[in-house]
Fold this sequence. Notes:
Rossmann fold, six-stranded parallel sheet, elongated
Amino acid sequence: MSAELSLVLREKIENTIRNLAIDAVERAGCGHPGAPMGLARPALEIWMNYLRFDPRDPDWPLRDRFVLSAGHASMLLYSLLHLFGFDVSLDDLKNFRQIGSKTPGHPEYGHTPGVELTTGPLGQGFGHGVGMALAGRLARAQFGREGKGPGHHHVYGIVSDGDLMEGVSYEASSLAGHLGLGNLIYIYDDNGITIDGPASLSFSEDVSKRFASQGWHIESVSGEDVEGIQNALDRAIEEEGRPSLLITKTTIGYGSPNRAGKSKAHGEKLGEEEAKLTKKALGWPDDPTFYIPEDVQKFLDGLVAAKRTGRKRGDKNFEDWRRTHAALAKEWDSARKREVPENLGELLSEELSGVEDATRKHSGAVIQKLFKHVPFLVGGSADLAGSNNTRIIVAGDVDPSSEDPFNGHNLHFGVREHAMGAVLNGIGLDGTFIGYGGTFLVFSDYLRPSIRLAALMKVPTIFVFTHDSIFLGEDGPTHQPIEHLDTLRAIPGLTLFRPVDGVETAMAWLWAVTEAKGPVVMALSRQKVSAPERPSSFDNVAVLRGAYSLSEDSKEPDVVLMASGSEVPTIVGASKVLLDEGVTARVISAPCLELFQQQGDDYQKSLLPEGVPVVAVEAGLGQGFLRWTGKDGLILGIDRFGESAPYADLADAFGFTPDSIAERVSKLLTS
């Protein structure tokens, strides 16, 4: 093939991508055609000549990852997936943004083959990609040897002005530069346009200096300069000690006579007339729509075949590593399969029954035990490890100043809660390590977008949130969560544990590492909490039913008292006060309302008999219990912010004492 023909064919492939985006957006009546049109050339270069993948096996562990952080440009990714042989058909492209299609408005992980993560909320793809790159480096350091084994791949991505404006990208880029993630390469689509108009209306910083100051390798190149893009990518790959940002000048809406370089190319269809004018300008036929020239598909089919041949070479090297390092290969396989001892629950809960302590302390003790049996655990804290008790004492740190920077399991996120959530999700998406991260529950607000995406993607990230109520005390209302338990419980697919003691904490961790199909929150106390006495028939597995009785239940109760965490001992005390008054109260510990909701009707009714009032107690809003209290029950919670005081004084002031609870229950029963 001559150089001239190659250039002509390249442009034809690029125009195929552009026009597929135009046609899909026109057919849907909405979408973002401009970015795919402007990014066709640099994106095609990555996919043709750099990205390692096998479309028949999208989960091939040695593949490079591609992150479209600018998720509104989804038709760029869908067109590439179709053209490069993934299970995304032409009909799927035609059904862009329609219910049940593989081509939703923004890319969704687990929904569309070849999509590595769900993007759309700007900045999140950027942060998740950092986590993917970190996971790759961890895998290479801990399992790879002599340039072979897992973790020898790159994470490529496309980020936008909007991504760089969002705060999460600043946090994530700072962390990536600090860690020296040389396997991370982002193309910054510097088209100078936002939905409201020129980016200069709100964005005038020197991006190059910003990222250089954070330790990134910087390249600047025109998005139309093929050779320049290639050279920039080559230099980025050679840069192993720093992440790379390729500042790429593109024209949004490339080829459109009246929309190119304008904000109207961003978030709306071109319109029938402008679409025709654009196709004419690009030398493209009006009819048929969704047109793919034969020579384009033939060339790309050949390229895919070559990539599959490359996959075979990669697999051969991988098998060489397996033979040479059989023990490491076995450990890696165990991590990928999430293999744990059958008696892990017993191992984790040993010596914790009856121990009075803060559940954050219990959690720290469980983490130490867990790591002995689950060595693929990695995690840390947003500069609160000593308070969150998240440090694995026997494991090393991930530390760029050390001789082997990534041969550790303790992650130091710094005061970067937002990035911590995204990075942890990226680690989980990589598939080798289970990631966890800690901060105070009140600061879960900073992580909420990442928590929500974890739920949407079904990524089992573990969020360790300590200081779970007003009973953290003197730090006062800025640090005391009120609404947070309820707002987290409201996220579909999120499982929240609020344990009362070491046994419940151990079982919560067991469930998180063995059963979770989505994110898990551990809501843990700062203050010591008394361990409740349990019936002789109690089995630890009852914790995993979400709720269970602490009473011997010799007769039908007059009332059911229900709580989680630190309020459980309070309702135990209230039940004794009520008993002295001739009222029989059944006490229910409910460490996980989500798991309790999943139990059968018979089990739920065995704890909460019909016709018996239910009183739920929680040192927060407590509205998550409304399903169980109903109209005849009562929620004793908090409907205002807390105060700064010792926790015992707060319990008195807010009515969370056995006597106060018993008094309010008595009023309910006699009203």
